[in-house]
Amino acid sequence: MKLSQITLIAFAVASLTACNKNNNKNTDNSMIDSLKQVQFETEQFADVQVLKYDIPGWEKLTLKEKKLVYYLAQAGYAGRDIFWDQNYKYNLKIRAALENIYQNYKGDKNSENWKNFEIYLKRIWFSNGIHHHYSNDKIKPGFPQTYLQTLLKETKTNLDASIVEVLFNDVDAKKVNLNQKVDLVQGSAVNFYGKGLTANDVEKYYSSMVPADSLRPLSTGLNSKLVRTESGKIEERIWRSGGMYGAAIDKVIFWLEKAVKVAENKPQAEALTILIDFYKTGELKKWDDYNVAWVKATEGNIDYINGFIEVYNDPLGHKASFESTVQIKDFDMSAKMEVVSKNAQWFEDHSPLMPQHKKKNVVGISYKTVIVAAESGDTSPATPIGVNLPNADWIRAEHGSKSISLGNIIEAYNKSGGDEKLKEFAFDENEIQLSKRYSELADKLHTALHEVIGHASGQLNPGVGTPKETLKSYASTLEEGRADLVALYYLYDKKIQDLGLVDDWQGLGKTAYNDYIRNGLMTQLVRIEPGQDIEEAHMRNRQWISAWVFEKGKEQNVIEKIERNGKTYFKINNYELLHDLFGQLLRETQRIKSEGDFNAAKALVETYGVKVDQKIHKEVLERSKKFNTAPYRGFVNPVLVPVTNEQGDITDIVVTYPKTFAEQMLYYSKNYNFLPLEN
Description:
Strand order of the largest sheet: 5-6-7-9-8
Strand content: 5-15%
Number of strands: 14
Helix content: 40-55%
C-alpha cells in the first residue's frame, strides 16, 4: 500500500472517531507503525514555503492528556471554515469550485496553465482565501479567465459568472484596506460588515453603546457581523450556536464538551465550560468571564487558545477572527524563561514611561515555552511565534495575562533558514558573526519580552476609551510596536545578564538591534509588491520604529546609511544612543495609547510606517532574487490518529503527517465543511 493511501486510512480512522462511530475493529498495529513513517516534505510555491513541525515529548503524555489534545484540536478544526468566510464572503464557494476542478480534471496536467492553476489554489489554501495572508492584496491567477471557464465546464463545476469575474478584476482588491483616503469598511473585502455600510455607520453604531461598567468595558462587536436589514435598521448577526456560523460552532462545542471530561484539573474544566457557554449564547460578558477563568487556569501540561480573538483583519478593530492553537508545556524552556515573568514589576518600574502610565502592580503574568500540537483558523498555516492574551486591557490589569512562546515553531523556522541572506544584507563580518552567535537567543528573548513584559506593561489614563475606540485603525500597529519597543529597550540592558538569561548582554543586544534595523528598513520589503504601501500591522510597526530612530539619530549619526559597490547597508554606530532613542519612542507610544491621542498615532504611523522607499525596495527585491527561500513560511499540522479497541474506546493516539500540503487541505475541506457556502 502506498504511503498516500496509508495516510488516507489515518484520516478515515480520525473521521470515524469524529463521527462517533464506534463499530470499527481494533486498528492494526502494523498500520500504525507505517503511519509513523509518513513524513511531510517541504513544499515551495510562489512566495510561500510550507514546512512541518514536530511534537517532541508526545510519547511521554498520558492517554488522558493525549485525548485532551486531540479533542481540543478537533474543536479548532471544526471552526476552520468560519475564518475562511470571515476573510471574504465568497471564499467558501471559490474554494469548493477550485477543489472540485483539482480533483476531477482529466485534461493536460503538464501545461503551464494547469501548473499555474495548482499554484493559485495552493496560495488560496495558504491564505485561507483569495487575499494574500500578509499583504491583504487579492491573489492574481497566473492563467487567463478563459482557461478557468474551460476547467469549470470540463469538470461540470458550478461557480457564478460574477464570482469568476471577481477573481480576475479589481473588485474587492484589498481584504483589509487601511488607506485613510478611502472608506475603510467599503474599501475592505473582509466579511465583517454587510453591503452598504460605511465606516461612519459602524463607528456611530458602536459609539452609542455605553458600557455598563466603564472600568470593565465589553469588547463590543467582537463576535458578530454588522448588517443593515431590509427595513434600514442596523443590527448584529451574532456568531453563536443557533446564530451565524451556528453549524460550525455546534461542532466546536461538541469537541469542547469532550475536552471538559478529560480536563487536567478543576480550573481548566471550569474555563472550558464557560467557553462553551459563550459559544452557546454569544454573550460578551461570558467571553470576559471565560478569559478571567482561562488566565487563572495556569496548572497542567496542556493549554489552548480557542475563540474570536485578534482584530487585525477588521479595519476598524471591532471584529475578531476565529483561531485555535493547542499546546503542550515545554518544561525545560519554560523553567528558564519563567525568570522574565517573575521580574515583570522590575521591568515596569525601570521603563522610560511617564510615571502616570506605569502600572503600580503588574499582576498575574504567566509565561511558558510550549510545544504546538495543532493550529487552525487565523494561526494556520501561517503561525505566530509568540502570543500574549487576553487582549482586554482591564483583564490584563486586574487578573493578568498568559504569554507563550511557540518553541517547536521557532525551532522549525531556524532549521529551515540559511545564512546567505544575512551575508548579503549585513554590513560587515563582525555583524555576521554576532548574528550567527546570538540571533537565535535574541529572537527568543525578544519574543518573551514582547509578549510577557511588552503587552502587559503600561496603563490607560482614567476615563480614556479602549484603543480600538480612540486609535481606531492605528490601534493594532501601535500596540505591536509598543510591545516591540519594550523588548528592544531591555535587550540592551545588563539586567538580562544579571538574571542569568545571557552571558554577554552587549553582544546579544547589538545583535538584536542590527537584526531589527536591517529588517525594518530593508529586508522585510521583500514581502510586498513594487509600488505598494505597507498595510500589515506588524510590518508597519517594524518600519515606523526603525525609520523614526533612524531619522531622530541622524544628527549624531546613530545609524548610518552606507552605499558600497552599488548596495545599501544600515550600520549602527552608537548602540547606547539607539537604546535611548528606543526608550524615547516607547514613552511617546505609551503616551499615545494612554491618552487616546488619535492624531499623534496617525502622524507617527503615516509618516514613518506606510510609505516605502521605492529605490531601496527595488534594490532589496533585486538582491533577493538569488535566494532559494520564500519570504513567507507556514506549516502543515501533524495528524493525530486515534487507535481504538473492539469497543470503540481510544487506547492511544498516534502522530503522523500528510504526505503533501494538498492532501491536508483537501482532507480539512471534506471533513470540517459544516457551513453553507455563503453565510
